C-alpha cells in the first residue's frame, strides 16, 4: 500500500486527517467522506456530489450485448409467473 499515513483515534473515536492531506485531496471542513470496510481494510473517499453521475457506467462491460428493455420484461414475467 503506497503513501501510508498513521492516524490516531481520540477519546471520542474521531480521527484527524491533517491539513496537508486534506489540502492534497481538496477536502474542506464539512465535506462528507464514504467509508468502505473490506475485511480489516478501511477505505475513505470523498463523497461525490451526485451519486447517480458517480455511478454512471459502473459495470458497463457486464451489460454489453444486453437489451435493457428485454431484460426487464423477462424479469417482470418471471416475477408475475412466480406468484410473488
Task: List the strand order in the largest sheet.
Answer: 1-2
Distance between the termini: 47 Å
Mean pLDDT: 89
Shape: elongated
How many domain modules?
1
What does the radius of gyration come to? 21 Å
For the sheet with most strands, the description reads: 2 strands, antiparallel
Query: How many helix segments?
Result: 3
Count of individual beta strands: 2
Q: Which stretches are poorly predicted, pLDDT < 50 over at least 5 residues? A: none
- Pairing-aware structural class of the strands and helices? alpha+beta
Helix content: 25-40%
Beta-strand content = 5-15%
SSE order: HEEHH
Question: Could you list some keywords that capture this structure?
Answer:
32% helix; alpha+beta; two-stranded antiparallel sheet; elongated; 3 helices; 84 residues; 14% strand
Descriptive overview:
The chain is an alpha+beta fold. The protein has one domain (19-82). The protein is built from three helices and two strands, in the order αββαα. It has a two-stranded antiparallel ribbon with strand order 1-2. The longest helix has 15 residues, at 68-82. It starts with 18 loop residues before the first helix and ends with a helix.
Give the structure's gist in a few sentences.
The chain has 84 residues and is α+β, with helices and mostly antiparallel strands.
